[in-house]
Amino acid sequence: MTQILGVLNVTPDSFSDGGRWLDRAAAVRHAEGMVARGADLIDVGGESTRPGAPRVAISEEQRRVLPVVRELVDRGIRVSIDTMNADTAAAAVAAGAEIVNDVSGGRADPEMDDVVRETGTRFVVMHWRGHSESMNELARYRDVVGEVVREIEYRVAELIVKGVSPERLIVDPGLGFAKNGDHNWRLLAHLDRLQRLGLPVLIGASRKRFIGELLPAGAQVGERDFASAVIAALAAHEGVWGVRVHDVSGTRAALDVAAAWAGGRTR
Known about the structure:
The chain has 267 residues and is α/β, with parallel strands linked by helices. Helix content is 42%, strand content 13%. The protein has 10 helices and 8 strands. Helix 1 crosses helix 2 (58-74), helix 2 packs parallel to helix 3 (86-94) and helix 9 (225-237) runs parallel beside helix 10 (248-264). It is globular and about 45 Å long.
């Protein structure tokens, strides 16, 4: 069954919901609501990775996320931590987070590999070419599917050589990170190429710009949820391990339809 990771941005500047969940009590209530609507994990992040976003001090990131992680874990909610910083990852895992979701795949902080190895946590290896302020300039490919798969495969090999168990790894093509709309659609259309690596696949398409480009001019970010749920259902049909989404209820319904469709073949 495809896992749903509900997005919880404890930030003032995320592209979709920046500022809504800065208050800890509000963040916890929102997380509880997502779990009630069908989220399997809550992905807590304290630093925006939207195009052009500035970096956040590690101390500020931890001030935002660690109290939320602790309270969610205390309430029995499964948590992943969305961070590029090894110190934040280590602290969140110590507080009970079970997955480190690093949009840089461990490339932004040279200490991240050690944290992943020493804690034994599950680790999302996302395809990444550079930080948010410069990533649009790096969206240059001759064969986006082949290059992304090769770069992820190389990064996975580095982690394994450093002692990280492959059973702990999840891969993510990094939709929207150093990729334009055409690149994103090509990657989604060829998920089988990524799955040949033999590792679980996470897809994070929810509300991203390339979805908005399909909609009528002037459509707001929240109006991308239906199309995001369609992508989640199609990805689930392709056998991905997880989808990272803002609209949990719509995604849960879409995944249930996809599962019933697949189950109908065996009845």
